[in-house]
Design goal:
The chain is of the alpha+beta class. The protein is built from six helices and five strands, in the order αααααββββαβ. The protein folds into two domains: 122 residues; 57 residues, SH3 type barrels, CATH 2.30.30. Helix 1 runs parallel beside helix 3 and helix 2 packs antiparallel against helix 3.
Length: 214
C-alpha cells in the first residue's frame, strides 16, 4: 500500500502524472514488441535471436507498464476515496496487467492465442458463476465510486428492504463492503446492497413549497 499516499497534493499530482506517462510509454513499447515478436515467430529460424530480443523487450517494458499504470490508478482512486480502496484497485490492476502480459508473451512465442482464449472463456464462465456474488460487489463498488452517493466520514440514512432504515456514519469503502457505524456498533454492508438501497441525509431540511419533492 506504499503506492497510495496522501502527502503534499502537488507532489502527489506529479507522481500520478509521471506514473501514467511512464506506464503509457512502456505499454506502447510492449505492444510494439508483441507485434514484432508475433511476426518473427513465423519466419525462418535465423530470426530466433530477434524473437528472443522482442521477448526480452516485452517482459521488461510490460513489467514497467503494469507496475506504473497500476500504481497510478491506485493513487488516483485512493486520493478520491480511501487508502484501502486505492490499494485494492492497484492489486486488481496488477493482476489484470499480468494476465495481459502473459498472453502477449505466449503470442510472441508462437502459442495459439485462439485456443488459449477459448479455454480462458470457459474457465471465466465457470469462475463467474461460482463467484457471482463477489463479482456483483466489485462492480457495485465501481458504480458507487463514480456515482459518489456518500463520502467517507459522512452520516447518511440507508433505506433498504434488507436492512430497513438505518442512520449510519460511513467509515470506509472497499471493493466488497462499505463499513459503517450504527448505534449498535460497526456493520459491514455489501456493496451490492448499498447500490440497491436508497441513500439520503438523516437531518436534511424539507424543500421549500413549490419545489420538486415538496
Amino acid at each position: 500500500m506504499g503506492g497510495v499516499t496522501r502527502g503534499n497534493p502537488l507532489e502527489h499530482h506529479h507522481r500520478v502524472v509521471r506514473d501514467w506517462a511512464v506506464g503509457a510509454i512502456a505499454g506502447l513499447v510492449s505492444m510494439a514488441a508483441v507485434g514484432v515478436g508475433r511476426h518473427l515467430a513465423h519466419t525462418h529460424a535465423r530470426a530466433a535471436w530477434l524473437t528472443a530480443l522482442a521477448t526480452l523487450v516485452l517482459v521488461v517494458a510490460g513489467v514497467y507498464a503494469v507496475r506504473h499504470l497500476a500504481r497510478a490508478a491506485g493513487r488516483t482512486i485512493g486520493r478520491r476515496t480511501s487508502l484501502g480502496t486505492g490499494a485494492a484497485v492497484r492489486l486488481v490492476m496488477t493482476g489484470i496487467g499480468v494476465v495481459v502480459l502473459v498472453f502477449g508473451l505466449l503470442g510472441v512465442l508462437g502459442v495459439s492465442i485462439q485456443r488459449l482464449l477459448i479455454g480462458a472463456g470457459v474457465t471465466g464462465v465457470i469462475v463467474g458463476i461460482a463467484a457471482q456474488q463477489s463479482l456483483a460487489n466489485v462492480f457495485a463498488a465501481i458504480v458507487l465510486l463514480f456515482a459518489r452517493p456518500f463520502v467517507v466520514g459522512e452520516r447518511i440514512r440507508i433505506r433498504s428492504g434488507v436492512l430497513g432504515v438505518l442512520d449510519v456514519t460511513v467509515l470506509g469503502a472497499g471493493l466488497t463492503y462499505v463499513t459503517v457505524r450504527t448505534d449498535d456498533g460497526i456493520l459491514k454492508v455489501p456493496n451490492s446492497v448499498m447500490l440497491a438501497s436508497g441513500i439520503g441525509r438523516p437531518d436534511a431540511p424539507p424543500p421549500p413549497p413549490g419545489e420538486p419533492g415538496a
